Amino acid sequence: MFRHPRTTRRPVLALLALPALLLATGTACGAGTTDSAGTAGGTSPTVRIALGVDASYAPLYLASERGMFEKAGLDVQLMKVEGGPAAAQAVTAGTAQLSANADSTALPQMVGNPRLRALGAFQSSGRYLKVVLRKGVTSPRQIRTMGSIQGLGLYATHEYLRHHGIDPDSVKIQQSAPQEIPTMLQRGDIDGYILFDPWVSKGVEAGGHIAGSTGDFGVTYVQWLLADQRWLKENEELAGKVFKVVAEADRLVTKDPRAAALAAHEQAQLPLAATEKAIGEISFEARGLTSADTTSSRRIADFLRRQKLIKNMPDLDTVLLRGWYDRHAR
Predict the structure, then answer these.
(1) Is residue 193 within 8 Å of residue 148, measured between CB atoms?
(2) Residues 255-301: pLDDT tens digits?
(3) DSSP 147-165
(4) More confident residue, 128 or 44
């Protein structure tokens, strides 16, 4: 069993994002509510999707930029948050009805809010997250300190160290927000980190170098769409229509990465060239959840519990809605 006595737990900005979300949306709805006003005609309830700001959300940016939700008769608003837990926390708070979260980030939130449900996956990758090491660090054996984000970042960091025969307890792991980590590398506070762009590019600009991707040591993330069960049970048809648009946007992103990068630039001010490159490292495909997702989720949740980051295992047979996508979103 892994202990984690040397992890430095810095204040996590994601925990501060929730009050900001409540202010940004004016008033906080009850958990899992849908706005009754919706569009001007009042025929389509507003559905807010909480998501982060990076290339992995390209299908949602593209769907919004091209008016794909409106063409499907939907009133969908994208709620951009810091990413990580903040997106799922917005669903829990009722300021969003759906969120996009990686599996390892969603699972701890499902412990805190067992009403959260994963409807299906819309992308995955073993190449998007990369290992960045500072100048002068040429071998994992030289690492003494690493920066990490919550959830997927911490899990990937442990797997990376173990893959290279390094006990994670022998390395100081400093948790922080993504935007802080490249600066920590530049100052020499950390020897490396595992992140996605633009923070990979920022680390290279700060003098670091790319030393591989998570797939090199067996870590592949899956991005889910989440909903609160109290909202979902009254809005399954609506949620299915939203997911159908996301699935179509997935196909368009795969077909035309340049157009997706342009949409991400317009919607989230992401750098065009780096975003297009990152899109090519992600598999954009909407699908239902399978037994393989359950197995992978159990492995991640076991890790989180060993690290004392969660007290209990989420009920995977309940929170992962196997078969939901095929029934409602095909």
Answers:
(1) yes
(2) 999 999 999 999 999 999 989 999 999 999 999 999 999 999 999 99
(3) EE-TTHHHHHHHHHHHHTT
(4) 128
Q: Is 32 helix (H, G, I), strand (E, B) or coil?
A: coil
CA distance linking residue 40 with residue 163, whole number of Å: 55
Please name which of 51, 122, 99 lies closest in space to residue 228, comparing C-alpha atoms. 99
The answer to whether the CB of 206 falls within 8 A of the CB of 186 is yes
Of 196, 217, 238, the last residue of a domain is 217
Check pLDDT > 50 for residue 121. yes
Total number of domains constituting the chain: 2
How would residue 227 be classed by pLDDT, with cut points 50, 70 and 90?
very high
pTM of the model: 0.82
- Judge if 238 and 168 occupy the same domain: no
